[in-house]
Amino acid sequence: MQTSVTQSLMDAFKVFFPYADGLGSYAGGRLLPGDGPPVALQDPATGRDVLAYADAGPQVVEAAAQAAQAAQAAWAALPHAQRGRIVFAVGAVIRAQQESLARLESINAGKPIRDCRVEVAKVAEMFEYYGGWADKFHGQVIPVPSGHLNYTRREPMGVVLQITPWNAPIFTCGWQVAPAIAMGNGVLLKPSELTPCTSLAVAMLAEQAGVPAGLINVLAGYGHTTGQAAIGHAAVRKVVFVGSPATGKRVAAAAAERIVPCVLELGGKSANIVFDDANLEKASQGAQAAIFSAAGQSCVAGSRLLVQRSIYERFVAMVAQGADRIRVGPPQDDKTEVGPIANNKQYAHVQGMIQDGLAAGAVLASQSADCPRPGFYVRPTVLSQVSNSMRLAQEEVFGPVLAAIPFDTEEEAVSIANDTRFGLAGAVWTGDTARAHRVAAKVKAGTFWINAYKIINVASPFGGYGDSGYGRSSGMEALYEYTQTKSVWVETAAETAPVFGYAP
Fold this sequence. Notes:
The protein has helices spanning about 5-15, 55-75, 80-95, 100-110, 115-135, 170-180, 195-210, 225-230, 245-255, 280-290, 310-325, 345-360, 390-395, 410-420, 435-440, 475-480, and strands at about 25, 30, 40, 50-55, 140, 150-155, 160-165, 185-190, 215-220, 235-240, 260-265, 270-275, 305-310, 365, 380-385, 400-405, 420-425, 425-430, 445-450, 465, 470, 485-490. Helix content is about 40%, strand content about 20%. It is globular. The longest helix is centred in the N-terminal third of the chain and has 21 residues, at about 115-135. It is of the alpha/beta class.
């Protein structure tokens, strides 16, 4: 007999796939069952088993790749403006299904429903933004000294593989798919095996907006089986991966075997720097949002709070008191601000990192991290007296755990911020404008905020330094990632003499 959570998940899924009797992959406009081992899903809010589905496997990957190649050829042949209108229309279809998509995301990923509504709206915005770029990103004419007409073309890569994580399934789906198809590519999307539902729904909704069947295919299954088969498929001409550095290395190595380029969006250990001349009330609120939103399961989370020593005790107490007031509860409750950790493996990791920090000398400044309810809940946790050499300050926790580190001078703050293998994001809070820009220039991070945190938009480039990855996946810069440049030379002289030489 189905549990209530199983029924809720299937009811939410059947809004988009009314005849489905379970989960599968979406290839060539059809929901296909896998033929691999079972993938078990759990409810993050209760810890109970929900359902299982079969890993897609190589046969489904082959069907999806063939569908993507056929659809991409026809899609790339359309006038750019026509493609753009269709991509823009995907946004409208997603907006029309905002509540249904948010509910499905909340149940499958364990995210607070109010956060899911915001993320669905952002996904619609992504398709609208890139729809507008479809006929505005093009080559140029180059005044070469020989007098030839030389121009460049921006051409699609072909079929791209995009591997997305469990912490923000629908957000990362739109973040990757929209620019790829706007530039004329076909897509194999491999979401986390734990959270495939909304990605499947987006692919189906895109076809309702006019995207040809087979252009967007969603592979539901494990990374080491289905994902590996997709990386190895001859149709795939680029790989985009969002996830952990350890897995990113394996993905990049597998792609390199086929001389296929990658974009990697990996982890972070971002420094949120607070000087004693900052607006402490706003900085306190910003510090809480930086780490506790999405239960800390965000690659840009401000997990290291660097506070000037003169205000350290007072400011850490402000943040800890705010953390204790945050409403932790079931994802479906509109009042919930922080939901559960998405899965049991991650929950165990977060708890282990907290205990490791305490054993190393960190001090609990907030209430206990334990939460008196079933499921994978961790209370917003503030740990003070942290040294940047601790494992807690060097490794990604990916949970609602804040490590507060004191500093004395601007130079020391920058040094601590850069003393990490990561370089994804960071922030500074100060009333000194000149110092704000100095720190922004010196901290090694792909995104940096001044007197703010965690503000991102599809129009702005996003990516990391160091072990946080390479390449950019939003803004105009993403369009370079999804196209390749062809240089065309045209002879314009009336009479030409033979030229003997060679091209490098």
